[in-house]
Task: structure prediction
Amino acid sequence: MTTRLRQIIADILGVSPSEIQPTSTPGDFPQWDSAAHIEIILSLEAEFGVAFTPEEMSEALSLAELQTTLQSKGVPPE
Amino acid sequence: MTRAPRPRVIDVRRSRPHQASIGDSATVQLVPGLIAFLENLPAAGFHPRYNIPASMGASAAAAILAPLDRPGTYWSGRDLEVEWTAPAGLTDTVLVDATLAELSDRLSRFHIRGVTATGIPLYTGTLRMMAIRDGVPAGFRSKAEYEQLRARLKRVSIPTSLPLGQSAPITISSTTPVTAQLPPGAGLSLDSPVTQYPDENGQVTFHIRADRPHLVNLGKPWELHLLTDSSKQTFPIEVPDPNPGRIFYLLTEDCETFDGGPLTGDYPSRGMGLYGNQNNFMDPEDYRVQMIQKPDRLNQIADRHGARWTHFYAATQRFGAAWAATQSSTGEWNRIVAEMDRCVREGSLRHEYCPHIHFDYEPDSQCPPQPRLLYDRATDGILPNDYYHPETNPTHRYHDWDGAARDNILYLKTPGSWATGDSKIGSLRKTHLHLARLQAGRRAPAVARTGSFDFGKSPEDQTISTQAYLANGLRGNSDSYRPGTDPVPGGQMFWCTQEDRQTPVNSLDQVRLVQFAITMDTFFQSAGDMNQWFARHWESVQGPGVHALLSMTHAMFCAGTPDPFRSLEGGAFDQLDQHLAWVREHYPTVEFATATEALLEYLDYYTPALDTYTEAPLIGGNPTAGYYEFHVRLLGAGIRVDDAHPATIRIAAPPCFSPADLATLRVWQDWTAIAEETTFDDRYQPVITVTLTSRSPLRLEVILRPEAIAAALDCFPDLAFHEPPEPPQPDLFCVRPPVVEGPHMRFYSDVVKLLMNPVAGHQEPLGRRVHPLGGLTLGIALTAALRNAGDAIPQRIKLRWLHETNLESTFVAETAGPVVRIRDDHGTLVALAEVVGQALPPAHHTADSSDFQSTLDTYRSQRAWKVMLAVRKVYDVAARGTWGQRLSLIWWIPSALLGKASGFDDYELRFPDFPRK
Result:
């Protein structure tokens, strides 16, 4: 899951996957704005077949937090 | 002809009618006009030849997406990637195709491509658009959800920048009350209480309004301090000025006499020119030529060009002339005195006469040596007793005020008062009063220049001189003498320290006098030299704010031909005429002004505290009964004045009135008398102090004592009443180039504002279908990235739009290698770009294409070329034309052979347009 998650975020932000660290947050990438974030969330929902609540969407603002939220919805880690 | 035809969607190709499907494509066509129009605007930073074709891709995309249009929904640009192969030529028809490659209910992606109608490829690229529904990117379930996320992602919790005139909240965490401390300079104000208590979340929020550009704060960000019992937090806040600057050109001269005889400088034998009649005394002829005729002549020449002279006028010489009239029996000095006064009265309709003190001519001084003036019956001339000294004043250049110009001479060192003539304040007052009376109703000078730049040397002496100026209501000084020096950044007007007139202040609490530096001291011997100086200094005065270029001369040294002393034609007068015509032609935006006019605009912009200036023209009253009314101008644009922000100001009586003349000063605002003063001290400038709670117009009523009425009427021969001029308003139209600010560039939205609005009575914006909002950041990114790349042209760009564009803001581009970050005045990141440029070979295409075009034109005019085109046409029509077209050749061929036929255009060879920077 982590690899796919990293790839999705990297694709949407237009950066290399290696630049996405577990602690990466929107503060690290100026292009990670609200539109990019909704793109990330919707891509994850489509990719993993889950649904984020509004609270989860606005709380999960790093790779690690997104990973935790996906795990809490039953998406297995790699 | 200039025209801007609208871009047209000329084809939409769909696999399923009335639906948007992958693979659908559209073509938008732009015929020549708009690109050429924008290219010819005097503003860099938009790159229309690259920008417009790329921006048209969004119109082609929108045409494909049209079937998906719903109320409350639109598509907004998100990402753009373009690789250019050539810019559009000014005469090219541009065709832009978009092909839908990806589509969801939130996002769409297109391949875009631009070509000219002749088939020259311009670019290929990708455009991504996102759907916006009810103002929110599609995908959010509600606006609240979107706002919640936005708040979490907001990177600017404390703004580092604010747009002028706008407010923003500043929130900090605190468990105790917080007090805001605003910076000096009135740049920021509060829309919330000064002291705030923490809310339930332990947060305190202040609402800060940006009232004045941070240029007022000497170019440094305003500093807001938030204080608690135990801490102090400081927040620097920039307030960029989005308005264009004003540039004034000041012509100044020292109006005085020179003799040049053996005992008065002996200039001819030293090869220093023929000035004066060289009889060792200042006689009526010296006065008439040098203080009357030549200044009048300079005024006449300036009037032809709308220029303004500031004559720094040695009124002490006028006092000396009056003294001479008491010694002479010729009657000539009485005529000189009358002519001098007439010259100032008439000249001050359009020009200005400011104090310039040659204290050696002051007949009433008690300073040694005595008597102050010598009279020579043989020449009917006068000379100051200490005019010449073989050691301390061998070239007669020193006229003394402070005395520092000549070491070891003790002159006017004490500040004194209006009532003490042999003091700095009193001597200035005497000259100022004389000139103010002659210019009453027209001008109230607020600038002076001491003779021989004798403002003082030591910090103590200069501080006293500064006090003397301020005690006389003089706010400007022109004693910073730097001839031949490099341009001064920002121009020749600056706040100087009171201890050293050459040194700019470094904090607002040091602000006292505005200094006018002199970098050009000229006798107008060469218009070309003047033009060169002006052009070199012009670049230093660009950007917002108030700037001045200032030249200095002496009317007495302006030499005509054939007689350099007496002639009023030819020579310097012609050179001045030519120079002013050149400035007017080449720099139409420069404003000619007197020193006081420029000073007032400077003070209005930069004064750190609200100030006033009592304007000279009468606006009402009944002068024959001793009642005068004057408009009081508030200085300090943007300074907030209301019930919550009261301001205490001082209003001075016009300098043409003495304290002993006055019975009452009364200030009116909104038809209410808000202050009155009836006690005046002969030693001090009469002022009245008022606390304002609004910026409504102010009137000063001056009521004279009965014994002063007749003398005052003599000062106001023209009893017309003038309504105050309208306050300045923003330009109706302007287009500005970007400004380099250290490592960054600042851009204005002028071109985009032009494109976003209809012009000339049309219904639709000029930039219809070329998407100027997206083009703004595209142009900024290209300009900023390529600025340091030298001779380069755009090759590739990857651009992401991140925030809506506020056209009232300016935009700062921060460049790091190929990456460009574009922020608005809130500090918000509006777009992020990566740009790759392509270096051009040296002496590249501009010259090449010019040569090529010239050669091509020659070929095209030659018979062989036309024969070739005729053969092309005949072959084409014969092979592919209709029978009707073939028959028409029967008539066309004979006329072509006779050189009369046209119709070659369709068969002309097309060549690619070379890239041009």
Remarks:
- The two ends of chain A are 5 Å apart (CA to CA).
- Chain A has a mean pLDDT of 86.
